[in-house]
Every structure is written in structure tokens, then in C-alpha cells.
Predict the structure.
Amino acid sequence: MDPVSMAQCRHYDYDAVEASVRRCVDLLGGINKFVRPGQRVLLKINLLTAAAPEKAVTTHPAVTLALSNLVREAGGRPVVADSPGPIPYTATGLKMAYRSAGYLALSEQGLLELNWDTSAAWLSCPAGRAVKRFEVIRPVVECDAVIAVPKLKTHMFTSFTGATKILFGVIPGLAKAGYHAKLQSGEQFADMLLDIVEAVKPTLYLMDGILAMEGDGPGLHGRPRPLGVLLAAADPVAMDAAACGIIGMDVMEVPMLRAAVERGWWSGNPADVEVLGDLWDKVAAPDFKKPDRVARDARGLDRMAWYQRILVPLFKQALTPRPVPSAERCNSCATCHRICPQKAITITGDAALVNDRDCIRCYCCHEMCPEAAIDLKYSIAGRVIGRIGLLGRGGK
């Protein structure tokens, strides 16, 4: 596998970030290895939603700015782009997300170029296992190279979100929900994510782990956690495996990394990942909090063949938490209604209502709610099962 580089960086002071970004990239051979003069380079950030940088939901603008300046040094022409999930993919929606995440101010100062083109284009993936053709945001097909800039975060559905999931953001706007409807299992969804990696083929990944996210990520339910580290790699699987090592997460808990083993992209053994600028003793966080759903599944129950084939359809309602809108926090904005792939959510009166029978537990609503107003709760049966230890942590 290609190596992963690490550099320590304790805060987002630009000079410190720039030095650490440069060190990360230099350890891999320098920016000229990944960018050629004259190339239009897409910096694909994590702009999940309109959230302030200190929430650790989005890639911090200081990291993106340092990388953008490095690309310019190599003669490239960088442009920053992403398609937020719960926000309409319009100029108005992008402006709101860019402003909240701290990017608009840098653009107005002439320091960053932001993408405002909200049209889409088709991208073929002949080698895809789950999807052979993607509709993507136009900069993906119009740029000469792509550099992905993920945030190190936990994720309620995929356990971890980093390099192998960052490219899901190239799917425009609410079209993402359609993939959740079609590919409901973690394994199916992971195959689709690796298909996007295969189709887009970023030349480089730079992960922002200076302020990471633990707990019930990747949105506002997660908790910011200082880690003080940046990672760089040309191989997204190696990068995610190294990041999992930092936070003490079993790589086999991440469906994309399991799927990558099946594709022959790596052995599944984290020891096979070469790490440059090794800082394990300074940045390792073995007490990093996993999402509750991942912790519940830690015994491997959900990966047993008989359980998957027989009990999942029967006990779905009991063994998976259901999204429950909070009457106190919900403001009836209808974001959850728009993004639900199964159309299982309606707005009645002053709050959202989830049809539990139609819900596929993709947790798009929980992830994308701008008010963090949707909680995940077990049914009475689930709580009973949790009390006897089958769901871990009490099935709360």
C-alpha cells in the first residue's frame, strides 16, 4: 500500500497549519508529485451542512487554505467545492454553507476560489460493483485533478467517515438520499462509496484531524474532540486504516474498509500500512468515543450470516434505533422530509412525524437536521433486549 504521512498540529493558527500541511505532503514526495503546472485542481472538502468550524462538522478553512496555496506553488489552479446534504444545491444554499463554515470570508478576501456552479454531469464507472454511472457536481468532471480534504469523524451509519466516504459529497444535493434508499445495508452502501473512489480517482487525500469528531457523528449530534493531527496519503484505504488506529477503532467495524478487503485493495491488517512521521504516542486517543450504534454492534452480532439472513428482517424494529423528532427542538423546517429517501417523514402541525414502518434506518434525517432535533431511540422491545446485554451499552 502507499504510505500515510502524519504531522502534528495543535490548533488552527494559519502558520502552524501551513507548516504541518507542507510537512505531510513533503513526506509523500512533495506537492509536485500530485499537481502539474496549469492543472485545474478541485479541492473536495467536507461541507456536510451549514456549521461553524468549531463544531468539527466540516473541513476547517485554514487547512483548505494552506493546501490551496500549496497547489498554487505547484502551478495549479485550485477551486473549492462540495455539495452539502440537507441544503438545496443552489447558489443561495452554497453561500449559506460556505459562510457558516468560514469559507465565504476567505473568498471575499481573494484567498480562496469557491465553486458556484450548481449544475451536474455524468461520470461513468465501468468497474463499479454497485453503481456504474454517477451524476456528480460538475467540477468533478471539469477539473484536471481532484484532491480530497476529509474531516476525521465518527459516523452513525458507517462507523467512521474519512477518505473512503468523503467523495459521497460529489453526488449533488438531495440526490444522495436516493442511494440510501437503493443501498440499504452497510455492505451495499460501502460498495457504492468505493465505486465513487474508483470513478473520481483523487490524486491525494489530506485529512483534517486537528479538531476531530467523536460520538454520534457526523453531524451536530457528534462531539468535537481535539486530536492535533493531519494525515496525507494517495491511498484512501491506507489513510482511513491509519486514522482508525489513532482513535482505537477496529478497521473491520468500517464497512468501506471491509469492502476494500473483498476487492483486494488491502489485506485488512493495519500493520501493513506504512506510516511516515510516526506520532502515535502523541496523537493516539484510545478513549475516543464511538457512535452508540457502533458500540452496540461491537460484539459482531450483526455480521453473523444467520442473523443477517433471518433475524434482521424480523427484528429490525427492535435492534435498530429509530429516528424520533423532538417536539421541543423541531421547528418544522422540513429538511428531514425533503431528504428522506423513503418519504417516510411528514410534517404535521409543529413537528416532523416518522412512519416507522417505512423507515429504512439510513439516519439521513438525524445526520442532516440543522437543529439536531432528531434523536435515535430504541423501541420498548429494543430497550428490553438492551437490558439483557444483547445491544451493548444498554441499547439506549
In short: The longest strand covers residues 204-215. Confidence is low (pLDDT under 50) at residues 295-309, 388-396. The two ends are 39 Å apart (CA to CA). The chain has two domains: 4-283, 292-395.
